[in-house]
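Lay summary. Proteins are chains of building blocks that fold into shapes, and those shapes determine what they do. In this project we predict the shape from the chain. Here is one chain we studied, written as its sequence of building blocks.
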Amino acid sequence: MPKNGKVKEEDFFKFLKLVAPGALLGQGLEIILQAGTGGLIVVGDTEKVLGAIEGGFKVNCHLTPTSLAELAKMDGAIVLSEDIKRILYANTELVPDYLIATGERGTRHRAAERMAKQTSCPVIAISQSRRTISLYQGNMKYVLKTPPELMSKANQALLTLEGYRATFHEVLTQLELLEFQDEVRLLDVVKAIQRGQIIKKIKEEIEKYMVELGEEARLIEMQLKEIIGNTLHENRQIIRDYAKKDYEQVFLELEEISMDELLDLTSITNALGYGTSSENLDLSVFPRGYRILSKVPHLPSAVIENVVKALGDLPSIMNSTVLELTEINEVGERRANSIKRELERLRDGALLVKR
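And here is the predicted shape, written in a compact code that computers can read:
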């Protein structure tokens, strides 16, 4: 269990999946909500949980939506097994430390928040009056949205994502042209990465809605995959091409940048290793060639790595001869000819778009 009340986001998403429509627990919660009875459910029979409950009776039966709903008609709390397969106790009273701070007002929700903070186990409070379901785990609280609300938010996010995907394609097309002309400035790179990172964050937001929607998210999932396409792969390759320090570290640093911070281009230049000065946006930069080489059909990533290490950057790769390419490890004459031919085709295609 998490320490100090801290819960990893991925652990909380696992919890969300278990209460989503279609899941056994989710179905039970929906019945309780429709019946208007309210309820209090603790997930996990750890020593901390058992030490903070009183009274009630032992059930120890398989969890079914109807049995959960029937037991919720009693005033007390229900305790489930950690794997959410069995109902262990019913009609129990939660007695967490009353000195634990809580921002809740209702008795049920105050007990739920304190129990979650004290035990770090998931606790679910179903409000009879407000007809809402609140999830608590550690210091985290989340109020479940209704499926119509989630669908509306997901569809709005998909529309926004489509717009950013279109602008990313435009910026990428321009960047590719500049790369073949050796005229790239850091600003051109940062604009592309900015849009790529925003797309990634919108995707993650939609995925949260999908987790909560459960089985009802199939259409959203199909649309998301179609819109995203290879955008995130392209963005990753751009970062690898231009990172001034270890690119894996750059990925991690970019992950930590919020949506608002992404609007400040210097936050991206700093993550790439170019510092925070806006003057650096005018620097001339050259790609290593990972992204363009990845477009060459049937070219293994190991060979791409060998070519980049041997020649250094895209301009040197473009200017290399077939003979020079064949001298690189794992690049024979046939593969060298293929690389040369495809790079020239990509360059001609980029120049053609300009016209």
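What the prediction tells us: The longest strand covers residues 86-94.
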